[in-house]
Amino acid sequence: FCKFKNQVENETCEKFLVLRLDKKYQFLSKEFQEFCYKHRIARQLTQALIPQQNIVAKRCNIIIFKKARSMLFKRNLPSSLWLKAISITNYLITIFPTNTNNVKTPIELYY
């Protein structure tokens, strides 16, 4: 997480203020708590495996899975290409603008 945090902060010139996490063991360690405290990152803990608290992320995953499945089905490709289809779908979502983002791409919003 430390490398990811540094990369995001360097690329955006913004500081992490809040981090929403589920209550899985890797996010509850004393070391991670101290890291967040040291860097003044507020942690919002949600229950693990409860989709109501992670509805936005769950919905995004459903959209990605449906689009990847459609790509494989439309071209009659084997299911062994599932991970590649997921990667391509995620990439396409990232580079295409959407109406909800005022016709900007997620990359444009990030930077």
Automatic annotation (TrEMBL):
Keyword Kinase tagged: no
One GO BP annotation of this record: DNA recombination
Superkingdom of the organism of origin: Eukaryota
Coiled coil: none
Keywords from the UniProt entry: DNA integration, DNA recombination, DNA-directed DNA polymerase, Endonuclease, Hydrolase, Magnesium, Metal-binding, Nuclease, Nucleotidyltransferase, RNA-directed DNA polymerase, Transferase
GO molecular function: DNA-directed DNA polymerase activity; endonuclease activity; hydrolase activity; metal ion binding; nucleic acid binding; RNA-directed DNA polymerase activity
Residues of the Integrase catalytic domain: 1-111
PANTHER family linked to this entry: TRANSPOSASE, PUTATIVE-RELATED, TRANSPOSON TY4-P GAG-POL POLYPROTEIN
Protein name: Integrase catalytic domain-containing protein
Organism: Physcomitrium patens (Spreading-leaved earth moss)
